[in-house]
Amino acid sequence: MDENLTRVIQEHLPGLPWLQMGSGFLIGLSVGYVIKKSFKILLFFGGLAVALLFILEHQHLITLNEEGLTQTVSEGSTLFQHFALFLKERLSRLGVAGGTSSVAGFFAGLKMG
Fold first, then answer.
1. Does Ribonucleoprotein show up as a keyword for this record (predicted)?
2. Taking 90 as the threshold, does the pLDDT of residue 92 lie above it?
């Protein structure tokens, strides 16, 4: 980018610190933000489904298999752990500098989301 253009952008948009960040940080930032927002939506709908199941059971419209419910939650937890390991593996492939920047961006995205 031209130095004059960079200077003009920085003078007119001083509150945009991500203009000086690397691509690894920006990728990590966007991934962290999307994951947190997606997780919030998933938790909302999951909680809504569990509440609906308990209401239907209380009304004696359905019968819940508690062992099956426990097994389903356990499988979901295992899938989440595999996803976390997948993210760690992908970030470790970026190298030391890119990985560090991506991890910092990821946690910043989690904080923002």
1. no
2. no
